[in-house]
Amino acid sequence: MQMMIKELQDTTEFLQARGFENPEIGIILGTGLGKLIDEIEVISEVSYNHIPGFPTATVEFHRGKLIFGKLDDKKVVVMQGRFHIYEGYSLWDVTFPVRVMKRLGIKKLLISNAAGSLNPKFKKGEIMLIDDHINLQGGSPLAFRGVEQLGTRFTDMSAPYDQQSGRIMQEIAKENGFPLHKGVYVAVVGPQLETRAEYRFLRTIGADAVGMSTVPEVIVANHLKIPIAAVSVLTDEGNPDDLKPVDIQDIIETAGKAEPQMITLFRELIKRIELKPAE
Question: Which pathway is this protein engaged in (predicted)?
Answer without folding.
Answer: Purine metabolism; purine nucleoside salvage
